[in-house]
Hints:
- By secondary structure, the protein is mainly alpha-helical.
- The protein is built from 14 helices and no strands.
- It has helices at 2-8, 29-50, 56-63, 67-70, 72-84, 88-95, 97-116, 121-136, 138-149, 155-184, 194-207, 223-242, 252-274, 288-317.
Amino acid sequence: MSALALSSQTRVPRAAVQAAPQNPERASPIVWVSIFAAMIGAFMAILNIQITNASLLNIEGGIGTGIDNGSWISTSYLIGEIVVIPLTDYLSRVFSFRKIMLAHATLFAVFSVACAFTHDLPSMIAMRGLQGYFGGVLIPMAFTLVFTKLPKAQQPIGLAMFSIAVTFAPAIGPTIGGYLTENYGWQTIFFVNVIPTIVMVTILYFTLERQPLQLGLLKEGDWLGIAAMAIGLSALQAVLEEGNKDDWFGSPFIVRLAIIAAVSLSLFIANELIVEKPLLRLRLLTKRNFGMGTTAAVFLGFGLFGSIYLLPAYLGQVQGYNAE
Protein backbone atom coordinates (compact mmCIF):
# COMPACT_ATOMS: atom_id res chain seq x y z
CA MET A 1 0.00 0.00 0.00
CA SER A 2 2.90 2.33 0.64
CA ALA A 3 4.22 1.61 -2.84
CA LEU A 4 0.80 2.40 -4.23
CA ALA A 5 0.78 5.74 -2.48
CA LEU A 6 4.21 6.63 -3.84
CA SER A 7 3.02 5.89 -7.34
CA SER A 8 -0.44 7.39 -7.19
CA GLN A 9 0.83 10.64 -5.68
CA THR A 10 2.80 11.35 -8.84
CA ARG A 11 0.58 10.08 -11.61
CA VAL A 12 -2.95 8.74 -11.20
CA PRO A 13 -3.87 6.20 -13.89
CA ARG A 14 -5.65 8.27 -16.51
CA ALA A 15 -7.79 5.32 -17.49
CA ALA A 16 -9.51 5.55 -14.12
CA VAL A 17 -10.60 9.13 -14.64
CA GLN A 18 -14.08 9.79 -15.97
CA ALA A 19 -15.83 12.99 -16.87
CA ALA A 20 -16.67 15.16 -13.88
CA PRO A 21 -20.21 14.69 -12.55
CA GLN A 22 -22.75 17.45 -13.13
CA ASN A 23 -22.69 18.35 -9.44
CA PRO A 24 -18.98 18.66 -8.62
CA GLU A 25 -19.71 18.18 -4.92
CA ARG A 26 -21.59 14.90 -5.26
CA ALA A 27 -20.73 11.72 -7.16
CA SER A 28 -23.40 9.96 -9.18
CA PRO A 29 -24.96 6.68 -7.97
CA ILE A 30 -23.08 4.85 -10.74
CA VAL A 31 -19.78 6.07 -9.34
CA TRP A 32 -20.68 4.84 -5.86
CA VAL A 33 -21.69 1.44 -7.26
CA SER A 34 -18.35 1.23 -9.06
CA ILE A 35 -16.42 2.11 -5.91
CA PHE A 36 -18.41 -0.41 -3.86
CA ALA A 37 -17.52 -3.12 -6.38
CA ALA A 38 -13.84 -2.16 -6.18
CA MET A 39 -14.01 -2.41 -2.38
CA ILE A 40 -15.21 -5.98 -2.76
CA GLY A 41 -12.03 -6.72 -4.67
CA ALA A 42 -9.79 -5.09 -2.06
CA PHE A 43 -11.63 -6.97 0.70
CA MET A 44 -11.23 -10.35 -1.02
CA ALA A 45 -7.55 -9.78 -1.88
CA ILE A 46 -6.67 -8.99 1.75
CA LEU A 47 -9.02 -11.67 3.12
CA ASN A 48 -7.01 -14.29 1.27
CA ILE A 49 -3.81 -13.29 3.05
CA GLN A 50 -5.25 -14.53 6.33
CA ILE A 51 -7.97 -16.99 5.37
CA THR A 52 -5.56 -19.94 5.34
CA ASN A 53 -3.99 -19.21 8.75
CA ALA A 54 -6.42 -21.19 10.89
CA SER A 55 -6.48 -23.99 8.33
CA LEU A 56 -2.76 -24.54 7.72
CA LEU A 57 -2.64 -27.87 9.56
CA ASN A 58 -5.55 -29.21 7.50
CA ILE A 59 -4.08 -27.94 4.23
CA GLU A 60 -0.67 -29.38 5.08
CA GLY A 61 -2.26 -32.74 5.73
CA GLY A 62 -4.33 -32.53 2.56
CA ILE A 63 -1.36 -31.89 0.28
CA GLY A 64 1.02 -34.16 2.17
CA THR A 65 3.57 -31.71 3.54
CA GLY A 66 4.86 -30.90 7.00
CA ILE A 67 4.48 -27.91 9.30
CA ASP A 68 7.93 -26.61 8.37
CA ASN A 69 6.96 -26.26 4.71
CA GLY A 70 3.35 -25.20 5.16
CA SER A 71 4.29 -21.59 5.86
CA TRP A 72 5.13 -21.24 2.16
CA ILE A 73 1.38 -21.39 1.48
CA SER A 74 1.07 -17.95 3.02
CA THR A 75 4.49 -16.70 1.93
CA SER A 76 3.92 -17.34 -1.78
CA TYR A 77 0.65 -15.38 -1.75
CA LEU A 78 2.32 -12.43 -0.05
CA ILE A 79 5.24 -12.47 -2.50
CA GLY A 80 2.81 -12.28 -5.41
CA GLU A 81 0.99 -9.35 -3.84
CA ILE A 82 3.98 -7.26 -2.83
CA VAL A 83 5.55 -7.62 -6.30
CA VAL A 84 2.47 -6.49 -8.24
CA ILE A 85 1.29 -3.62 -6.01
CA PRO A 86 4.13 -1.25 -7.04
CA LEU A 87 3.52 -2.23 -10.68
CA THR A 88 -0.18 -1.38 -10.62
CA ASP A 89 0.11 2.23 -11.79
CA TYR A 90 2.39 1.34 -14.69
CA LEU A 91 0.28 -1.63 -15.80
CA SER A 92 -2.94 0.37 -15.66
CA ARG A 93 -1.47 3.11 -17.85
CA VAL A 94 -0.16 0.64 -20.43
CA PHE A 95 -3.15 -1.72 -20.65
CA SER A 96 -5.86 0.65 -19.29
CA PHE A 97 -7.32 0.71 -15.82
CA ARG A 98 -10.48 -1.12 -16.87
CA LYS A 99 -8.76 -4.00 -18.65
CA ILE A 100 -6.27 -4.59 -15.84
CA MET A 101 -8.98 -4.48 -13.21
CA LEU A 102 -11.28 -6.92 -15.01
CA ALA A 103 -8.54 -9.30 -16.17
CA HIS A 104 -6.76 -9.50 -12.83
CA ALA A 105 -10.00 -9.91 -10.87
CA THR A 106 -11.07 -12.77 -13.12
CA LEU A 107 -7.70 -14.54 -12.92
CA PHE A 108 -7.65 -14.01 -9.17
CA ALA A 109 -10.81 -16.11 -8.90
CA VAL A 110 -9.50 -18.69 -11.38
CA PHE A 111 -6.29 -19.31 -9.45
CA SER A 112 -8.22 -19.30 -6.17
CA VAL A 113 -10.25 -22.24 -7.42
CA ALA A 114 -7.07 -23.86 -8.76
CA CYS A 115 -5.65 -23.87 -5.21
CA ALA A 116 -8.47 -26.17 -4.11
CA PHE A 117 -7.43 -28.82 -6.65
CA THR A 118 -3.73 -28.96 -5.81
CA HIS A 119 -2.31 -32.20 -4.37
CA ASP A 120 1.28 -31.29 -3.48
CA LEU A 121 3.26 -28.40 -2.04
CA PRO A 122 4.97 -27.12 -5.24
CA SER A 123 1.68 -26.76 -7.10
CA MET A 124 0.05 -25.11 -4.09
CA ILE A 125 2.91 -22.61 -3.83
CA ALA A 126 2.62 -21.82 -7.55
CA MET A 127 -1.16 -21.37 -7.47
CA ARG A 128 -1.05 -19.25 -4.32
CA GLY A 129 1.69 -17.08 -5.80
CA LEU A 130 -0.35 -16.46 -8.95
CA GLN A 131 -3.46 -15.88 -6.87
CA GLY A 132 -1.60 -13.22 -4.89
CA TYR A 133 -0.17 -11.63 -8.03
CA PHE A 134 -3.53 -11.21 -9.74
CA GLY A 135 -5.32 -10.24 -6.54
CA GLY A 136 -2.72 -7.70 -5.48
CA VAL A 137 -3.81 -5.03 -7.96
CA LEU A 138 -7.31 -4.99 -6.51
CA ILE A 139 -6.06 -3.25 -3.35
CA PRO A 140 -4.40 -0.14 -4.87
CA MET A 141 -7.01 0.13 -7.62
CA ALA A 142 -9.82 0.45 -5.09
CA PHE A 143 -7.76 3.16 -3.38
CA THR A 144 -7.17 4.92 -6.70
CA LEU A 145 -10.86 4.98 -7.63
CA VAL A 146 -11.64 6.95 -4.48
CA PHE A 147 -9.35 9.79 -5.59
CA THR A 148 -10.15 9.73 -9.30
CA LYS A 149 -13.93 9.36 -9.24
CA LEU A 150 -15.10 11.09 -6.06
CA PRO A 151 -15.16 14.86 -5.58
CA LYS A 152 -12.89 16.08 -2.83
CA ALA A 153 -15.77 16.62 -0.40
CA GLN A 154 -16.79 12.95 -0.62
CA GLN A 155 -13.34 11.39 -0.66
CA PRO A 156 -13.31 10.90 3.15
CA ILE A 157 -16.36 8.64 2.77
CA GLY A 158 -14.58 6.60 0.12
CA LEU A 159 -11.46 6.38 2.28
CA ALA A 160 -13.57 5.21 5.22
CA MET A 161 -15.03 2.45 3.01
CA PHE A 162 -11.53 1.44 1.95
CA SER A 163 -10.28 1.45 5.55
CA ILE A 164 -13.14 -0.74 6.71
CA ALA A 165 -12.50 -3.21 3.88
CA VAL A 166 -8.75 -3.54 4.46
CA THR A 167 -8.96 -3.80 8.27
CA PHE A 168 -12.04 -5.99 8.59
CA ALA A 169 -10.81 -8.51 6.00
CA PRO A 170 -7.74 -9.73 7.93
CA ALA A 171 -9.72 -9.73 11.17
CA ILE A 172 -12.47 -11.99 9.84
CA GLY A 173 -10.25 -14.10 7.55
CA PRO A 174 -9.15 -16.80 10.05
CA THR A 175 -12.73 -17.07 11.36
CA ILE A 176 -14.17 -17.72 7.92
CA GLY A 177 -11.34 -20.09 7.03
CA GLY A 178 -11.63 -22.04 10.27
CA TYR A 179 -15.40 -22.45 10.04
CA LEU A 180 -15.37 -23.59 6.41
CA THR A 181 -12.45 -25.96 6.97
CA GLU A 182 -13.96 -27.69 9.98
CA ASN A 183 -17.44 -28.06 8.48
CA TYR A 184 -16.88 -28.41 4.74
CA GLY A 185 -13.19 -29.17 4.17
CA TRP A 186 -10.17 -26.93 3.57
CA GLN A 187 -10.80 -26.79 -0.18
CA THR A 188 -13.91 -24.66 0.36
CA ILE A 189 -11.91 -21.66 1.62
CA PHE A 190 -10.67 -21.15 -1.92
CA PHE A 191 -14.19 -21.07 -3.37
CA VAL A 192 -15.36 -18.08 -1.32
CA ASN A 193 -13.85 -15.70 -3.89
CA VAL A 194 -15.95 -16.89 -6.82
CA ILE A 195 -19.35 -15.25 -6.21
CA PRO A 196 -17.99 -11.89 -4.93
CA THR A 197 -15.63 -11.76 -7.92
CA ILE A 198 -18.46 -12.42 -10.37
CA VAL A 199 -20.48 -9.60 -8.77
CA MET A 200 -17.49 -7.26 -8.82
CA VAL A 201 -16.47 -7.98 -12.42
CA THR A 202 -20.06 -7.63 -13.67
CA ILE A 203 -20.49 -4.23 -12.03
CA LEU A 204 -17.11 -2.90 -13.12
CA TYR A 205 -17.63 -4.13 -16.67
CA PHE A 206 -20.60 -1.79 -17.04
CA THR A 207 -19.38 1.14 -14.93
CA LEU A 208 -15.70 1.63 -15.75
CA GLU A 209 -14.87 3.78 -18.73
CA ARG A 210 -13.25 2.12 -21.73
CA GLN A 211 -9.79 3.41 -22.58
CA PRO A 212 -7.36 2.55 -25.40
CA LEU A 213 -4.16 0.64 -24.83
CA GLN A 214 -0.94 2.64 -24.64
CA LEU A 215 1.57 -0.04 -25.57
CA GLY A 216 4.10 2.63 -26.48
CA LEU A 217 4.67 3.11 -22.75
CA LEU A 218 6.33 -0.30 -22.67
CA LYS A 219 9.41 1.33 -24.19
CA GLU A 220 9.53 3.82 -21.32
CA GLY A 221 9.24 1.22 -18.58
CA ASP A 222 11.73 1.26 -15.71
CA TRP A 223 12.62 -2.36 -16.37
CA LEU A 224 15.78 -2.39 -14.26
CA GLY A 225 13.81 -0.99 -11.34
CA ILE A 226 11.00 -3.49 -11.88
CA ALA A 227 13.40 -6.45 -11.96
CA ALA A 228 15.38 -5.27 -8.93
CA MET A 229 12.19 -4.56 -7.00
CA ALA A 230 10.62 -7.94 -7.78
CA ILE A 231 13.73 -9.94 -6.87
CA GLY A 232 14.54 -7.88 -3.79
CA LEU A 233 11.04 -7.87 -2.30
CA SER A 234 10.54 -11.58 -3.01
CA ALA A 235 13.84 -12.48 -1.32
CA LEU A 236 13.15 -10.17 1.64
CA GLN A 237 9.67 -11.60 2.12
CA ALA A 238 11.08 -15.13 2.14
CA VAL A 239 13.74 -14.14 4.69
CA LEU A 240 11.18 -12.61 7.03
CA GLU A 241 8.75 -15.51 6.70
CA GLU A 242 11.21 -18.40 6.85
CA GLY A 243 14.07 -16.97 8.92
CA ASN A 244 12.75 -17.92 12.34
CA LYS A 245 12.06 -21.50 11.27
CA ASP A 246 15.52 -21.88 9.72
CA ASP A 247 17.50 -20.27 12.58
CA TRP A 248 17.96 -17.01 10.70
CA PHE A 249 21.58 -16.49 9.63
CA GLY A 250 22.53 -19.93 10.87
CA SER A 251 20.97 -21.17 7.64
CA PRO A 252 22.97 -20.80 4.39
CA PHE A 253 19.66 -20.54 2.52
CA ILE A 254 18.56 -17.53 4.57
CA VAL A 255 22.01 -15.93 4.24
CA ARG A 256 21.89 -16.21 0.45
CA LEU A 257 18.38 -14.79 0.33
CA ALA A 258 19.38 -11.91 2.61
CA ILE A 259 22.32 -11.03 0.36
CA ILE A 260 20.11 -11.14 -2.72
CA ALA A 261 17.54 -8.92 -1.00
CA ALA A 262 20.13 -6.39 0.17
CA VAL A 263 21.83 -6.12 -3.22
CA SER A 264 18.62 -5.99 -5.24
CA LEU A 265 16.85 -3.46 -3.03
CA SER A 266 19.95 -1.25 -2.87
CA LEU A 267 20.10 -1.32 -6.66
CA PHE A 268 16.39 -0.55 -6.83
CA ILE A 269 16.65 2.48 -4.52
CA ALA A 270 19.68 3.85 -6.38
CA ASN A 271 17.98 3.35 -9.72
CA GLU A 272 14.75 5.06 -8.62
CA LEU A 273 16.70 8.12 -7.47
CA ILE A 274 18.61 8.41 -10.75
CA VAL A 275 16.34 7.54 -13.66
CA GLU A 276 14.10 10.14 -15.27
CA LYS A 277 10.90 8.06 -15.13
CA PRO A 278 11.16 5.81 -12.08
CA LEU A 279 8.67 3.11 -11.17
CA LEU A 280 8.25 4.74 -7.74
CA ARG A 281 9.16 8.30 -6.80
CA LEU A 282 10.94 7.60 -3.54
CA ARG A 283 11.75 11.27 -2.93
CA LEU A 284 8.13 11.75 -1.92
CA LEU A 285 9.06 10.11 1.37
CA THR A 286 11.03 13.24 2.25
CA LYS A 287 7.77 15.20 2.44
CA ARG A 288 6.89 15.28 6.12
CA ASN A 289 3.20 14.37 6.02
CA PHE A 290 3.62 11.71 3.37
CA GLY A 291 6.67 10.18 5.03
CA MET A 292 5.07 10.12 8.49
CA GLY A 293 1.85 8.69 7.07
CA THR A 294 3.73 5.92 5.31
CA THR A 295 5.69 5.11 8.48
CA ALA A 296 2.45 4.97 10.49
CA ALA A 297 0.95 2.61 7.91
CA VAL A 298 3.96 0.30 8.25
CA PHE A 299 3.57 0.04 12.02
CA LEU A 300 -0.18 -0.46 11.65
CA GLY A 301 0.59 -3.35 9.33
CA PHE A 302 2.98 -4.90 11.85
CA GLY A 303 0.35 -4.81 14.58
CA LEU A 304 -2.62 -5.81 12.49
CA PHE A 305 -1.23 -8.53 10.26
CA GLY A 306 1.39 -9.84 12.67
CA SER A 307 -1.00 -10.60 15.50
CA ILE A 308 -3.65 -12.10 13.22
CA TYR A 309 -1.03 -14.37 11.63
CA LEU A 310 0.61 -15.54 14.86
CA LEU A 311 -2.44 -16.24 17.00
CA PRO A 312 -4.12 -18.88 14.77
CA ALA A 313 -0.74 -20.56 14.18
CA TYR A 314 -0.07 -20.71 17.93
CA LEU A 315 -3.53 -22.01 18.82
CA GLY A 316 -3.44 -24.66 16.10
CA GLN A 317 0.14 -25.91 16.24
CA VAL A 318 0.98 -25.46 19.94
CA GLN A 319 -2.34 -25.65 21.75
CA GLY A 320 -3.83 -28.23 19.36
CA TYR A 321 -7.10 -26.43 18.66
CA ASN A 322 -9.02 -27.44 15.55
CA ALA A 323 -9.48 -24.95 12.70
CA GLU A 324 -12.87 -23.70 13.91
